[in-house]
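Section 5: illustrative case.
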């Protein structure tokens, strides 16, 4: 049993010459090439992306907003160059495209000519998203493109918040303008409500007036109908009067003509009577002649068609009769002289146009003509008055009907005005309430709210176990890889199973332990050296340093036992190929770099059955923190792997105590 723990002979082989001793030291430090060097190289690559040359092009022409020129592209370009997140270089578009094509730049970012217009478009009539042109070239570096895409996503988020804050600030500024407009509109609404109230009262008065007007129009219509009847009767009376007056005017004309003729006869009579009187005075004695003459004159007077002349003729006859009875005497002469004077007066009145009778008769005749014209005008006026009264009656009837319609319309207007007044009051109230609901901010408050609204989401991230950087995150994978390769290198230099132990006929377990313990010392040294370098030189700060060191030792010993079992079972030549194949499988199935679910389905199925999955899981919890049951599962699996590998190797070693030609001369040597 003591021989099983005696490993001096195996190590003694490496102490005889300098080169083997150097080889032994190299075996101890060789895992650092995979562990420490990889971690050093990839410790925090994202902190160095500012050294990646990236072209930035500002082709933006700017935009005119409210009379002010806005150049968002220039502002963003200056901000990105100032921040220095990437190795920005301001170049022309042609230089940027050429640089991306020939590899001088990893990618190029261009703000197009309409960038400012698109950014400010939400406040206009044609809102659209602003576009940033990004050109990559995977031929330069596919990983560089991935880093660039990640960086652009972060930059885009920052720019979206900044630009969104500016756009929202414009909206809020417009909202403040709207608030001012609403306040003014509310004042106007209150004035409108006051006006509609007055209008409502006025319409009520108008309704009263319309009813009064309709009543009066109906009364006027009735009066106009009565007036039309009266004017009709007046027109009929005037027509009758006209029919009576027209003959009167004609009679006056005929009377004037007869008076003129009587005047001529009266003149002749007067002349005859005068002559007769003169003759009687001269010939008083000549009675017979006188009576004869009187009779002759009487006969002449009877020829005149006028009653007064006939009376004169009869007087002459009476005179003749008297002369005949009494003879011509003084009384007769006195009567003749009176007759002469009366005839002269009659001749003057009837014959002289300037006599009162003839003048009055002329005036009567003229008045009759004027009366005729006036009566005709009166008749025409009465007829027109009657026609106008009829039209007035018809018009007033229409007005009365319209008055009734006006009453109905004013009633509807009153109802509509009441609704308008209620609506105006509701509008004024709503505008006032709306204006009060829109807060009033100063410029600083508006800018603060625009920043919040423009980027309304903010992650409150909580990480139960946070990796300090990229290297810390991938350290479990590289360390596991280094320890597995370290165990593999040990068995490439040292003998997985000692022939001396096999030849001595020791049991399988003792034979395996005789080779395992010397190698275990080197494996422990590998773990300690790796821990010291990673911890103190590279700067990895594990959550549990002692636990990490112990887990490194356990992982190294487990991987060492596992690879020893493969070597013992398959033989050195075949085992080397098998171990490399197992290494490749574990690299893609352990989930050290990417989540297992993101790999192929085959690797996801294999993941729980490979040792490196548990070494990666345990180291993550010891380095990053947040240790839970998975750590103890990993410890249990690795310890089980250690024991199981030694047992499998012991069984295989026991079978190898029999030497065959195939073992002495294997078909494959590597």
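Designed sequence:
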């Amino acid at each position: 049993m003591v021989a099983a723990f005696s490993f001096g002979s195996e190590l003694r082989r490496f102490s005889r010459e300098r080169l083997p001793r150097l080889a032994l030291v190299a075996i101890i430090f060789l895992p650092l090439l995979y562990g420490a060097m990889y971690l050093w190289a990839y410790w925090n690559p994202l902190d160095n992306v500012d050294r990646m040359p990236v072209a930035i092009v500002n082709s933006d022409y700017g935009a005119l907003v409210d009379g002010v020129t806005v150049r968002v592209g220039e502002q963003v370009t200056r901000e990105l160059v100032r921040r220095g997140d990437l190795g920005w270089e301001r170049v022309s578009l042609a230089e940027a495209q050429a640089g991306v094509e020939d590899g001088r730049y990893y990618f190029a970012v261009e703000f197009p000519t309409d960038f400012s217009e698109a950014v400010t478009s939400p406040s206009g009539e044609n809102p659209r998203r602003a576009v940033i042109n990004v050109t990559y070239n995977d031929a330069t570096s596919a990983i560089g493109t991935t880093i660039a895409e990640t960086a652009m996503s972060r930059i885009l988020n920052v720019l979206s918040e900044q630009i969104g804050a500016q756009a929202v600030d414009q909206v809020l500024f417009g909202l403040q303008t709207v608030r001012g407009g609403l306040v003014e509109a509310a004042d106007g609404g209150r004035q409108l409500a006051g006006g509609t109230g007055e209008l409502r009262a006025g319409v009520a008065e108008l309704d009263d007036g319309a009813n009064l007007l309709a009543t009066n129009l109906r009364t006027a219509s009735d009066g106009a109908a009565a007036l039309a009847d009266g004017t009709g009767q007046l027109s009929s009376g005037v027509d009758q009067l006209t029919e009576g007056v027209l003959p009167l005017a004609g009679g006056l004309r005929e009377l004037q003509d007869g008076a003129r003729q009587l005047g001529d006869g009266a003149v002749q009579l007067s002349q005859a009577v005068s002559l007769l009187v003169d003759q009687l005075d001269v010939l008083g004695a000549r009675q017979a002649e006188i009576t004869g003459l009187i009779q002759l004159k009487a006969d002449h007077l009877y020829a005149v068609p006028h009653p007064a002349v006939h009376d004169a003729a009869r007087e002459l006859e009476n005179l003749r009769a008297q002369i005949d009875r009494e003879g011509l005497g003084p009384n007769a002469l006195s009567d003749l002289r009176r007759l002469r004077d009366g005839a002269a007066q009659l001749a003057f009145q009837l014959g002289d146009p300037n006599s009162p009778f003839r003048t009055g008769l002329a005036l009567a005749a003229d008045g009759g003509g004027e009366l005729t014209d006036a009566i005709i005008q009166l008749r025409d006026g009465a007829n027109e008055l009657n026609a106008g009264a009829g039209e007035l009656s018809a018009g007033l009837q229409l007005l009365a009907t319209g008055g009734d319609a006006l009453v109905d319309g004013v009633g509807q207007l009153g109802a509509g005005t009441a609704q308008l007044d209620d609506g105006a009051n509701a509008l004024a109230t709503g505008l006032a309430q709306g204006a009060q609901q829109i807060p009033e901010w100063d410029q600083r408050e508006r800018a603060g709210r625009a920043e919040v609204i423009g980027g309304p989401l903010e992650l409150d991230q909580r990480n139960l176990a946070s990796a300090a950087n990229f290297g810390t995150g991938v350290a479990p994978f590289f360390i596991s890889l280094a320890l597995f390769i370290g165990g593999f290198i040990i068995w490439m230099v040292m003998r997985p199973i000692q022939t001396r132990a096999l030849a001595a006929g020791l049991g399988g377990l003792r034979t395996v332990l005789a080779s395992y313990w010397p190698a275990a010392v080197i494996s422990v040294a590998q773990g300690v050296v790796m821990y010291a370098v990673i911890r103190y030189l590279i700067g990895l700060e594990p959550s549990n340093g002692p636990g990490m060191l112990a887990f490194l030792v356990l992982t190294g010993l487990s991987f060492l036992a596992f690879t020893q079992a493969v070597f013992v079972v398959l033989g050195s030549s075949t085992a080397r190929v098998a171990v490399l194949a197992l290494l490749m499988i574990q690299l893609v199935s352990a989930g050290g770099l990417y989540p297992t679910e993101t790999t192929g389905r085959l690797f996801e199925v294999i993941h729980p059955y490979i040792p490196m999955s548990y070494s990666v899981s345990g180291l993550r919890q010891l380095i990053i923190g947040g240790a839970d049951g998975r750590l103890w599962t990993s410890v249990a699996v690795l310890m089980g792997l250690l024991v199981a590998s030694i047992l499998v190797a012991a069984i295989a070693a026991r079978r190898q105590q029999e030497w065959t030609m195939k073992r002495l001369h294997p078909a494959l040597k590597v």
